[in-house]
Amino acid sequence: VKKGKLPIEELRRRFPQIVGFHFVSSYSGEGISELQDNIIKSALAQTYMGEKIPEAWLTLERQIDKLRENKALLKFHEVEDVGNTVGILDNVELVQAVQFLHDLGSVQFFNTPFLKSHVVIVSQWIVDVMACIVTVHEGPIKEGKFYYTDMPTVWAKYPEELHPWLLRLTEEFDLTFPLSNEEANIVPCLLPNAEPQYDFTPVNKDNNERETKMIYNFDYLPAGLFNRVQVRLHQFSDSSVMWKAGFMLKKNNHRALLRQTSNTQ
Fold first, then answer.
1. How do 177-178 and 145-147 pair as beta strands?
2. pLDDT tens digits for 133-156?
3. Which of 80, 105, 112, 195 is deepest in the core (most CB within 10 A)?
4. What is the CATH number of domain 55-121?
5. Would you list the domain boundaries of the chain?
6. Is residue 94 helix, strand or coil?
């Protein structure tokens, strides 16, 4: 982006958290050192800088780092074994240490009743798991419906006993959600593009029913964001009326039809 084309003042006004602007060249190296200095300066100014971290937690990170050459995923009891070798004997402290490493981005740990059984120590591994579902290659997932019987095909290179954990991981990342009446998950980003036929009964004003229409306009609507909304609201949705860019919601006596009509609306 040329300097003259970047609306610096407008961006500063809209996003006051911006620390600064740096124009750099990956070809000549121009501006790189100034950018590095500013990043360090901004990091040191954070309120959490100077906090003391238990040495055992940092040693745990170094020991886990050594395992990355041969493993991408650890069972939690394996992490416990590593923790014991570095002096973390209390399970509560171990969870705190692993959560701390998760916050740093060193590992991926999901402290839920089901997912806490494993710790991901190579982040690319998660990307590869998700890519088995959202792929350009032909697969068993048709019209956005991921049947559990297809898990051995989709995740053929992963141990079968791990498949339920992988499925729950896709739910954690808002990629899929489970159906209550079928042994399957819906993958919203793989749903058909065509809007299906459905019955949306007109409002009966004589029965004190009211209808409201709201349009949300964005400067830009990132790809996949609407599909994440579909996942987050799936408990209110009628899965029979759902396509890639829209779905129907029902709660109590209320109905709603949500549609994405463009990249900004």
1. unpaired
2. 998 678 899 999 999 999 999 999
3. 80
4. 1.10.10.10
5. 8-45, 55-121, 205-259
6. helix
